[in-house]
Design goal:
Blueprint (H helix, E strand, L loop, with lengths): L2 H12 L13 H19 L3 E7 L3 H7 L5 E6 L3 E3 L2 E3 L8 E10 L12 H6 L1 E11 L11 H6 L4 E6 L15 E6 L2 E7 L7 H14 L9 E6 L4 E2 L5 E5 L5 E6 L1
Parallel strand pairs: 1-10, 3-7, 4-13
Antiparallel strand pairs: 1-2, 5-6, 5-10, 5-11, 6-7, 8-9, 8-12, 12-13
Helix pairs in contact: 1-2
């Protein structure tokens, strides 16, 4: 295990945050190589299997929060993926940043290839659409100033993922204009649309498919992908109840206990 994986695994499972990585990666490609080691170490502790991907910083608000100028990705775990409605133990998280997102489940593989995938090709490989909430968490003392490479190694600050109702007949929907509202303990905290996600959630999914190709891998049938926050973020505490309302697509209900 690398020094970075050891530090982040200890931080996550022994609950002691770290100020920085012991061996900061030299570039983004090195950061993703470190991330893969971190993910394998966490998977060994969590059990289950890898469930797919999250795309971070597809939203200008999130980019400003974290000081990045574009997206990056991390992995989802089956052990920390739940179906709504759900009550989740708050104690494993250092923080509970709530991000309403559009999720997809792939129906076909998108293997690596020389030519970039078009958005239509990516859309044709999608099976299901679903509303979702990502719980963002970080193992760093100061996550907003850690920097892009450090955030990538920390599995893109992923904590957990809550899935809502699956929709198979989603292609007729205007996802860019689709409204999303986030409620905290019954009070509306934030609102937005799918346009916040690189202009359209499928743009984020297409970005991911082509970025994975650059690393010699690709999306596979069955993978879930969470495409990035559609609203401003909010922070939740123990006892809080969150509802993300996606109108015709349904709601996500999450309580921290």
């Amino acid at each position: 295990m690398s020094a970075n994986a050891r530090a982040l695994t200890t931080a996550r499972f022994n609950r002691n945050r770290i100020p920085a990585l012991p061996e900061p990666p030299a570039d983004v490609r090195s950061a993703y190589l470190d991330q893969a080691v971190v993910v394998r170490s966490w998977l060994d502790r969590l059990g289950g299997e890898l469930a797919g991907y999250k795309v971070a910083c597809t939203n200008e608000i999130a980019q400003k929060h974290l000081g990045t100028d574009g997206p990056f990705f991390g992995r989802l775990f089956s052990a920390t993926t739940w179906d709504s409605p759900v009550a989740v133990d708050a104690s494993p998280f250092f923080m509970r940043v709530i991000e309403p997102e559009f999720g997809f489940q792939m129906a076909a593989d998108l293997p690596p290839r020389a030519d970039p995938y078009s958005r239509d090709e990516v859309a044709n490989a999608v099976g299901l659409l679903m509303p979702a909430i990502e719980i963002v968490d970080s193992r760093y003392d100061e996550w907003t100033t850690a920097g892009l490479r450090a955030l990538i190694v920390d599995n893109a600050c992923h904590g957990g993922w809550v899935r809502g109702p699956r929709c198979a007949d989603w292609r007729s929907l205007d996802l860019a204009a689709h409204p999303v509202r986030l409620f905290l303990n019954g009070k509306e905290e934030a609102s937005g649309t799918g346009a916040a996600v690189l202009g359209h959630p499928l743009n984020a999914l297409t970005w991911l498919a082509n970025r994975l190709t650059g690393y010699g891998t690709g999306l596979r049938a069955g993978d879930y992908v969470s495409t990035g926050v559609c609203t401003d973020i909010c922070f939740a505490n123990i006892g809080d109840r969150l509802v993300a309302d996606y109108g015709s697509l349904g709601q996500i209900e999450l309580t921290f206990q």
